[in-house]
Design a protein that fits this description.
Layout: H1 2-23, H2 37-41, H3 52-61, H4 67-85, H5 92-114, H6 120-158, E1 164-165, E2 175-177, E3 191-194, E4 200-202, H7 206-214, H8 220-223, E5 233-237, E6 246-249, E7 255-256, E8 259-261, E9 268-270, H9 281-285
Antiparallel strand pairs: 1-2, 2-3, 3-4, 5-6, 6-7, 8-9
Length: about 290
């Protein structure tokens, strides 16, 4: 798994640079304005960093890269950096699921963006390799789908879909809030445990971990729960019982679909649950 991640990340960087090079040779330099053919020919150039190709591919080349695909690519880079520098990584199942997303993207990227620049014989050889990669990707996707179908049935049968959210490790909606891991860590505590990849998070730390992971803003009415008034409200949370992302409180586990500040006191109000003016209960009673 370690070397799969390292090689896959290397493939992302090389293939992205290949497309930039096909567009114009200066685009592979850190500073295109200072590019020279001599530095390119002698391979002494300072090349574009792993984060910048996505911006250049979108804005200059016109390559379509969705926000979800960008997130998967950045997550792979984070995993690679951990492996490279610290020798640690997430649960192997989580890594495999994320790697499958990147592999799927790269196969489509080669088809749409690179094949046209190859000579006929190279195109044939590439297609042979891609065929094998598609089979491998099919195995990964089949594994994920089969496992997810089984887990979905279990969660539905147990009636815990309303407290099952997206896992920060594997990004499957299989993290059951309040569920202890199979091997409880010393010291006890309350946890949220993923049924897909077995990653677990201590519940007290989960709100801030979630906010940092999603890069949410600090608007107070978005972070304070309108039901329990704890500052542990997650925004844009995927919950298994809901078709669209919602507000989810990590303290009382309540779901709110639409939240706005009270017109009078600015406290958060679950306007999707109110049938009158945008007022909190104390202000409405007053």
């Amino acid at each position: 798994m370690k070397y799969a991640v390292l090689h896959l990340q290397a493939a992302v960087e090389v293939l992205f640079k290949a497309r930039l090079l096909a567009e114009h040779w200066t685009l592979v330099f850190t500073r295109p304005g200072e590019a020279t053919r001599k530095a390119l020919d002698e391979a002494t150039l300072s090349s574009v960093s792993p984060d910048n190709p996505i911006t250049r591919l979108r804005n200059i080349v016109g390559v379509q890269i969705s926000a979800k695909e960008e997130q998967a690519l950045r997550k792979l880079t984070e995993t690679r950096n951990k492996l490279q520098h610290f020798g640690v990584t997430d649960n192997a199942r989580a890594v495999e699921a994320r790697a499958g997303e990147v592999l799927d993207f790269l196969i489509r990227f080669i088809d749409a963006e690179l094949q046209t620049y190859l000579e006929p014989e190279d195109r044939e050889a590439t297609e042979v390799v891609l065929k094998a990669l598609r089979r491998g990707l099919g195995n990964i996707n089949a594994y994920v789908e089969k496992r997810m179908n089984r887990i979905a049935g279990e969660l539905r049968e147990e009636g815990v879909e309303r407290i099952t959210i997206e896992c920060l490790a594997c990004e499957q909606v299989t993290l059951v809030v309040g569920e202890a891991p199979p091997m409880r860590p010393a010291g006890g505590g309350t946890f949220a445990t993923c049924r897909f990849c077995a990653s677990f998070f201590e519940l007290d730390d989960l709100p801030i971990t979630w906010l940092l992971h999603r890069g949410q803003n600090g608007d107070s009415y978005k972070l304070t729960c309108p039901w329990c008034h704890e500052g542990k409200l997650g925004n844009d949370v995927r919950v298994r019982s809901e078709p669209e992302p919602v507000y989810f409180c990590f303290a009382c586990f309540r779901i709110s679909k639409e939240i706005a500040p009270c017109h009078r006191c600015r406290r958060p109000v679950d306007v999707s649950a109110e049938d009158s003016a945008q007022l909190c209960r104390p202000c409405r009673d007053a």
